[in-house]
Amino acid sequence: MELKKSFDTRFSPEQTWEGLSDIHLVASCLPGASITEQITADEYKGKLSVKVGPLAAGFDGLISIERDALERVALVTGKGADAKSSSRVTAKMRYQVTPGVDGGAHVEIVSDISLAGALAQFGKAAVMQEIANRMTNEFVRQFESRLAEQEAVAASADTAQAPDAGGATATAPAGPDTGPRPPVAAPQSAPSQLDAGNLLWVILKDRIAGFFKRIFK
To answer: How far is the C-alpha of 125 from the C-alpha of 55, rounded, in Å?
Structure first.
């Protein structure tokens, strides 16, 4: 099954490419995903936890990545299996980062996914596309949050180390204590498990609502 998705970020193509090249950062932005072991520079062991209705599965598998930094293109391949449900998944994903609007980046993604076993009954194209839409939205939200956090940390470090006009490193002047400062909000973590059962219910409600809108409009 082939799925095509795209998204835009306010970050430059360079920042976006570097972020997508960090496999641990990417996994932290995907619901239920984690990297459990690095085998080589481009091969990893990972896990994806999902729940579809009464079925809960934890896919343990292998992930390999081929990158072309010049063209900002990457090919990700993976396969995994869940021992409890006897479900298996294989996937190939190609993404490319190109310049977007206002200095941002545009990301095109083409995935080819194959499901087998108990979870295959939920692998219909329309359902998978809706789940992919929601997963992408969650990923983009988390991804931009983490890039923004990295940008803020880098800017703070640059400010602290910037030399003054005389060549000395600038430091914040001592002053009266103005009281406790509000804590910086940490980025919200991605859900620890992809609850596809909940997504399916949301899809069903959306379609029922759309059906009645067409009738009574």
So the answer is: 19
